[in-house]
Amino acid sequence: MAYVITVAGAGGKSGLIEALATQYAAQGKRVAVTTTTHMFCRPDRPGVSYSGRVEGTKLAYPGDSCYEELCRNYDVVLVEGDGSHHRPIKIPADYEPVIPENTDEIFVVMGLCAVGRPFAVVCHRAGLADEEDRRLLNGGREPMMERNASQVAETAASISFEGGGLVTETFVAHLARKYYLEPLRKRYPGVPVHDMRSNMMKRRYEECTGESGNRRTFAALVDDEEPVQSMALILMASGYGRRFGGNKLLCSYRGKPLYRWGLDALLEAKRLLECPFPCKEADGFTDNTGDVCEPVQAKVMVVSRYDGILNEEDYSGRVQMVENPDYAEGIAGSVRAGTRAAFADDSCGAVAFFVADQPHLDGKEIACFLREYLCSGKTMGCLFTDHPGNPAAFRRGMETELLSLTGDAGAGRLLREHPEKVHHYIVDEAKWKDMDLPWEND
Q1: How far apart (Å, rounded) are the C-alpha atoms in residues 400 and 362?
Q2: What pLDDT does 128 receive?
Q3: Of 248, 259, 319, 426, which cross-links 244 as Cys (Cβ 3.0–4.6 Å)?
Q4: What's the number of CA atoms in the CB half-sphere (13 Å) around residue 221?
């Protein structure tokens, strides 16, 4: 019978499974990967087979008989036993994780990219947090292990983390211990349960418990091993605004034309990406061990049909203006024009496309998204709330696909066709809001 390993938790599960599968396949073992929940479809590779019931771009639990057959026919069966909706940390529901009874080993993974970000944004099922969690999150103190009923009521009434409460590494460890490690060790006595962290900035998984010399580490598999040293940030500013009823991009919003909010944010993101040290504005650019992320050179570009944008002198020398000859076609015309202009520079390793009507998406959020995306090694990246959307980023090698886009659908099709190759960056929905309807001009 197979040796069964189940991976639970949040950010990094699939990546750790891929790393484990590669390790066992290199030892000559036959490896099967399956799920008790859902996972993205992947093609079989030498020594590794993927099994499940196909549901669109995902695999679901294959059923008891199929699972039992996998255990009979393979040396190692790796099970993805949890889901987190692309969030790096999680509080499980009562029925989670879903772990087969014949599991020989359990890995619990939490993503360190949650550190420094709002708990309510980056935690799956954040609403399940109790008073103890709220106290630690907001007060920076260790959880109180004993308190009477009046203390509980008083503290719970006074603490709120909705939209606030920044996650710390201590808090990540608290969630892992309280909601996964302790319950699983009690439920599965004798089964090893490993406490793992997904460290995206180092592209590896690290065990957090035990003697330091015995901690297990795994290198993450990435789509592209070549680090990106230069990229283009492209603002698509050719739209007319049919739902708005006119050219909204040049309308004043809070003191300046709408498009300039997006363009100024890209210039700020450029500054942060090129920052060679972890300054105050670039707090998220350390790898959580104190090492500094390598700077990335960024070129800011605007693709537009409007002379009022293309000839704006305030951005002379700082922004490359690109005229869009195919503006009537829709957003695909902007993508093609930006792709051609960006990749004409042989040093450009990736492009990121931004719409010009998201004034609440600030430069630091953009820089954090791009830094995570580049460190993930994924081919594509995008923002995500309950679905993927703009901005979206693509590595060199995707030129053919980008240049083949037509119509007003943009590059969303590419993200949907290969979700396993996409890094999804979780963002507060309020920052993602676009301005489709008229506002009171100032």
Answers
A1: 30
A2: 95
A3: 248
A4: 13
Which contacts (CB < 8 Å, 24+ apart) does range 305-308 have?
305/238, 306/237, 306/238, 306/247, 306/249, 306/250, 308/250
Q: How many other β-carbons are positioned within 10 Å of the β-carbon of residue 221?
A: 16
Write out pLDDT tens, residues 373-397.
998 889 999 999 888 888 999 999 9
Helix residue ranges per DSSP H, 396-439 = 399-403, 412-417, 429-432
Rg (CA), the chain: 23
pLDDT tens for each residue of 145-189 = 344 444 433 333 333 444 458 999 999 999 999 999 999 999 999
Tokens 């290199």 label which residue? 26
Q: In this structure, what token pair is assigned to residue 168?
A: 């710390």
Please give the DSSP secondary-structure letter assigned to residue 421.
G
pTM comes to 0.85
CA 80/CA 6 separation, integer angstroms? 6
Q: State yes or no: cis peptide before 97, omega within 30 of 0.
A: yes
Q: 78: number of CA atoms within 13 Å, CB side? A: 25
Peptide bond into 391 cis (omega under 30): yes
| Beta-sheet pairing, 58-60 with 53-55 | antiparallel
Tokens of 56: 């669109």
How would residue 47 be classed by pLDDT, with cut points 50, 70 and 90? very high
| Per-residue pLDDT, 59 | 95
SS3 helix, strand, coil % of the chain, rounded to 5? 35, 25, 40
Could you list the beta-strand ranges (E) of 319-427. Answer: 320-323, 350-355, 380-384, 388-395, 422-426
Rounded Cα distance, 52 and 40, in Å: 10
Average pLDDT value for residue range 7-15: 94
Amino acid at 384: F
**With contact defined as beta carbons under 8 Å apart, do 129 and 120 qualify?**
no
